[in-house]
Amino acid sequence: MRPLAASKAIQYIRDLYAKEDKLLQEIHEALVAVHQPIHIGPEEGKFLQLLIQMIGAKRILEIGTLYGYSTIWMGRALPEEGKIISLEHEDRCVEAARSYVHKAGLDGIVDIIAGDACTTLQEKLSDARFDMIFMDADKLQYELYLELALPLLNPGGLIVADNTLLFDSVYEDGPIGGVRQTTWEAMRRFNAVLADPSRFASLLLPTKEGLTLAIKQK
Ligand code: MG
Question: Distances from the Cα of 151 to the Cαs of 56, 119, 131, 159, 199, in angstroms?
Fold first, then answer.
């Protein structure tokens, strides 16, 4: 989630390294207008771009499109033959995201699939393969998304998951701040799976929300 008021340090970084263009600003303002500014910050968008370039990702699975803010940051880092399949269950978000992706000139790179992500993964994408998965969706379902999406990730592929500190509750003895017990338990299990060094080279980066990086071992 993007902090509502950026600190001076974050603002300095954004101004220097991660400037939003008019379109990204427009998406941010549209999300603020519907009281859902829960997208990543521009510095995280830039970080995703760097990761894509570092691993030479060509095919990305995104779980949770929202209005396409992160989708557009990632799409802009992909080569012409690259592809992002982005899954979104809310129709109004699908519609908004498609229009922003079109404005970004990324129609050829981004496919947004409407519907429940778990169903889509099982019914439409079981033969697909990806170099990177970006997860920023329903926190209760992260564990299930991982189970369904991991077989689609190429060995050496990268998982990036946002909000893995679960609003500063995941490291407490129990859920706090309105986080549900079931979600807290599911995120604890999700983090434990990704922390297993026999399966992943991984780290939960202590961003404000927590951003996990995990490379699927060969
Ligand atoms: Mg998020």
Answer: 20, 15, 11, 12, 12
Segments of the chain scoring below 70 in pLDDT:
1-4
Rounded distance from Cα 125 to ligand 1 centre (Å): 23
- What per-residue confidence (pLDDT) applies to 187? 97
Q: How far is the CA of 139 from the centre of ligand 1 (A)?
A: 9
SS3 track for 68-98: CHHHHHHHCCCCCCCEEEEEECCHHHHHHHH
Taking the mean position of all CA atoms in its chain, how far away is CA 52? 13
pTM for the model stands at: 0.96
Residues 6+ positions from 177 with CB-CB distance below 8 Å: 167, 168, 169
| Ligand 1 mean position, distance from CA 38 (Å) | 6
Could you read off the pLDDT of 91-116 as tens digits, one per residue?
A: 999 999 999 999 999 999 999 999 99
CA of 41 from ligand 1 middle (Å) equals 9
Give the pair of three-digit tokens for residue 185: 């338990």
- Bridge pairing between strands 200-205 and 211-216: antiparallel
Q: What pLDDT is recorded for position 172?
A: 97
For 20-40, the pLDDT digits (tens) are: 999 999 999 999 999 999 999
CA angle 147, 151, 157 (to 5 degrees): 105
